[in-house]
From TrEMBL, chains A, B:
The keyword Lipid metabolism does not apply. It comes from the Bacteria. InterPro entries: DGOK, DGOK_C, DGOK_N. GO terms for molecular function: 2-dehydro-3-deoxygalactonokinase activity. This is 2-dehydro-3-deoxygalactonokinase. Pfam families: DGOK. The keyword Transferase applies. GO terms for biological process: D-galactonate catabolic process. Keywords: Kinase, Transferase.
Length: 298, 298
């Protein structure tokens, strides 16, 4: 089974490749060869380990890759483009140096914003994909995750965006801080989540005081692990929403992400009177890479 | 050299012991046998490894210990006392089970507050020590650290207190998050610290947005590692001060802690018109343990 072209989502911790044919995805493969564990010479071999079976001898197969692979510490730098701009631009793709004659690898550049300083790498492809899936969309796209992004879209361009470390802070606080003692397991408590969101939004200046309270209530008031986890998540998402208010207030919002975290954001936004539409993150990446590929070929 | 009694500050990561004579400290010793690496049977041997040379045969030497050693996961639980109360109370000391006939070990209980839920263990001894060093003090004691505490003191009692995870969040964000890339080394930049404090206090609802900006400015605007570290510290301390406003506004404030972090807090408070007095944390612990010992003997 040979691919017509290959779509690659290459982040810090994972490498995902998709063999694309005329009718769409033929097959896919994933490895843990993320950017974080590769040196510069390791990228091409890591890619070939996954995609060799999809390559035809004597033919050059296009590979379009987005994510941290195009960062300064990645395979080859694809310099940031400055907003306002479209989320993708075929002429700004950077060709990675390769030895294998069967592939031509193009890296998608990220976006940067000068003031306030901000960067994204990978999310621009999801935004392009969301626009491809929702033609003519004007409004705000929220991309929750390790580093959540909010982007204001107008007439097909990213006008401004803002990054929040919400997912990374949740991971650090729930797994590596003193709070980890009271929130093991996968339990969840919607009411505690809602209360956390409301609390952070109503009194954002108190957030610093509310975090340790989770531990203290666990020690002296029997707060359950499920309620502790959900409240921490609610407080952090509420803190993000407090700062992102100019993005969602009175706006059409699309959430692009994985199912679980997108549902949490949608729930929090609904409480604020915002009905968000949801797009799966994986669908958005593929649609964005396909839109990029279509521009390259055109 | 035999001790009249032995003062012990026994936290999660360290064990510090002081041999005390008529004139004060005779000698001291420290080990990494913190509560975190000991099981219940390991406490007495760990203590004896440090203090055996100070014990006289045929005599029982008093040991007074504060900190996590008295927690549920410690040597023996010294149950929290509920505020409002004095920071120490000789009748609430708990005697740890020991085999060696040369020692009698008393553990200082921590304090708890029901609403909002909060706990302290170790800081109550520093507060007692600060009161011993500043007789008649009424006002607020700030104890910066991994888990910073603010305590309102009136007529010798802890009326209320509040814990902030500021130090732990600084450690996690500067060493384990994406921000670590741009803040290696020990550099410092006072102006960046001041700006971080001001920013967090003026617009606490934006804190979630300001953290990733440190990374972004490093990537696209050349923010120095020293400025990045200092701004992160300023933002986190500013966030704490925003929530602790009822504690410091218009109050006499004493900061009890190590020199570096106390100076940062004093600088931030000075910018808010609050001239804080400083007491060294080590001095406060010893003064608190000495006051406890004096009550036991009396």
């Amino acid at each position: 089974m040979k691919a017509e072209w290959i779509a690659v989502d290459w982040g810090t911790t994972n490498l995902r490749a998709f063999a694309i044919g005329r009718e769409g995805i033929l097959t896919q493969a994933v490895s843990e060869d993320g950017m974080g564990r590769l040196d510069r010479d390791g990228f091409e071999p890591a890619l070939l380990r996954l995609i060799s079976p999809w390559l035809a001898e004597g033919t050059v197969t296009d590979v379009v890759a987005c994510g941290m692979v195009g960062s300064r510490q990645g395979w080859h730098e694809a310099p940031y483009r400055a907003v306002p701009c479209t989320p993708l631009d075929a002429e700004s793709l950077v060709t990675a140096p390769t030895r294998d004659p069967r592939i031509r690898v193009r890296l998608v550049p990220g976006l940067k914003q000068t003031s306030p300083a901000d960067v994204m790498r990978g999310e621009e492809t999801q935004i392009a994909g969301a626009l491809a899936l929702l033609p003519g969309f004007d409004g705000v796209i929220c991309l929750p995750g390790t580093h959540s992004k909010w982007a204001h879209l107008s007439a097909g361009e990213v006008v401004s965006f803002q990054t929040f470390m919400t997912g990374e802070m949740f991971a650090l606080l729930s797994q590596a801080s003193v709070l980890r003692h009271g929130m093991q397991g996968d339990g969840w408590d919607d009411a505690a989540f809602d209360a956390g969101v409301s609390d952070a939004l109503a009194r954002p200046e108190r957030i610093g005081a509310r975090l340790f309270g989770i531990r203290a209530e666990g020690l002296i008031a029997g707060l359950s692990a499920a309620a502790a986890r959900a409240r921490l998540s609610g407080l952090l998402i509420g803190m993000e929403l407090a700062a992102a208010r100019p993005y969602w207030l009175g706006q059409a919002v699309v959430i692009v992400g994985s199912d679980g975290i997108s549902a949490s954001y949608a729930r929090a936004l609904k409480g604020l009177g915002v009905e968000a539409r949801l797009v799966r993150g994986g669908d958005a990446v593929l649609a964005g890479l396909a839109a990029t590929r279509a521009k390259v070929v055109a």
